[in-house]
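Changelog entry

Holo records now carry the ligand SMILES as an explicit input line rather than a separate metadata file. Below, a converted record for zinc ion, shown in the new format.
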Amino acid sequence: MSPQSRAPLAVVGLLNIPPAALEHRFVMEALAVAHSRESEDLERVIGTDNTGCCELYGWAPHVAPHADGFGFVYLVCLNDGKTSISVRDTCGEIQEVFAPVGTVIRLDDRLEHWTSDTVARVAAFAGHFPEPCDEAAIAQLKAGIAALAEGAYTGAPRVRDGFRVLLDDECWSAATLDDELETTLLRDATAAGRWIEICSHCRKPAVRPDPKWPYSMALSRCMKHLAGR
Ligand SMILES: [Zn+2]
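Structure line, unchanged by the conversion:
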């Protein structure tokens, strides 16, 4: 392995981002969420679940210096914009890379890092890995971007649960009460005979399931009742 192979910040690939990927509903959702974090006193980065599959995430411009403490993560920006990502390495020196669309960046998120951006960015994400794992990570990113470009719902990368905004054609459903709830298209869940979690007030599909599901369903709410109307 080359001496650069464990670099805490490196450009490790270049992927084609088909325009159709940007039109995917999950990318629109991620962009909206990233924009919504610009003016509020919120964490500017959309969090990730580090599932081992491609996820979507993003950030409002100018993420302040912070460390996450997981390991090596990979990201590739999907939307146009100018971003520089900086890391303070173990010698205290600052390293910087730029993140135009399609450039795959590897970052050791245990080190302090920050961004400077012209716009909110949405990125495909893979991680974390205890050691650099460029090939596997790039394969995950490619598969995720391909699913977005195909317009797939099932299997396409998405922002993590707490950042999702469900539309009217979606619901939280599970194969059985022993399985986990997932966001699904309502028509697919109905066709497959899945459990569809409903609002305890009005029986419409819940956009926010009870946090103690399946042991409690009393706090499951549709959008209207979540808003207290
Ligand atoms: Zn309701």
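Spot-checked after migration. The radius of gyration is 19 Å. The CA atoms of residues 177 and 214 lie 6 Å apart.
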